[in-house]
Amino acid sequence: MPPSPNRNSAGAILFDLDGTLVDSAPAMTRGLNEMTRRRGVPPVEVASVRRWVSLGGEAMLRCALGAEADPLSDLEEFRDILSGQTADPADLYPGVSATLAALKREGYRTAVCTNKREDIAVSYAAGLGIAPHLDAIVGGAPGRHLKPDPLLAHLALERLGAGAHEAILVGDSEIDAETALAAGLPFVLVTFGYPHGDIAAIPADARLDGFDALLSLAAAMLAHELTRQAEGTHG
């Protein structure tokens, strides 16, 4: 997706995808169970997949397939299965589409920043119906380090024409919290996603229980960050 930065933007917001904008665990469970069926191993439950998502694709495949797993080759097979599925907009968390549309109207630049392979993420976002509300989608690709390395966040900011001083990252897991810290971004933790451990232990600048509160939260956080930057400049 080509960048479409708005230099007069109110700020920039980077979103994780799985567990943040969309409850993708049911689709991933269907994909994993196609693989368990092919290998003759027991199927997995969606509740287990929710715990595995934040660990990344290879770890999730090891959890699902056990001794039958060959993560490097299995990962391509899993991606092929996922890319063949039809995205269901009903899997979006409540309020996501309306909030993304409102952010765009208010002049925010928005991007998805995901460890999902970028071509799959672009297609997935289109199928979910949220692609028109996004200015960039950044994901995994050959040679790119994945989150919690800050590279994907930096690429997203570059595509948006934004600096870390005017942006926040919204995510659902320990990995997103580490990514925000590494990239120098304030972090908003959604409380309904896929954390690996105790969600109360994940450090965050703010917590979000529902997308209806994001617009006011983002405005307050970005205004605070700009004030802090100005004070630091003149101090």
Question: What does this entry look like structurally?
Answer:
It is a single chain. The chain is α/β, with parallel strands linked by helices. It folds into two domains: 11-23 and 92-234, HAD superfamily/HAD-like (Rossmann fold), CATH 3.40.50; 25-83, no CATH class. It contains nine helices and six strands, in the order βαααααβαβαβαββα. It has helices spanning 25-39, 46-52, 57-65, 71-83, 96-105, 118-128, 151-160, 174-183, 214-234, and strands at 11-15, 108-117, 136-140, 167-171, 187-190, 206-208. It has a six-stranded parallel beta sheet, with helices on both faces. β2 (108-117), α6 and β3 (136-140) form a beta-alpha-beta unit. α1 packs across α2, α1 (25-39) crosses α4 and α3 (57-65) packs across α4 (71-83). The chain is elongated.
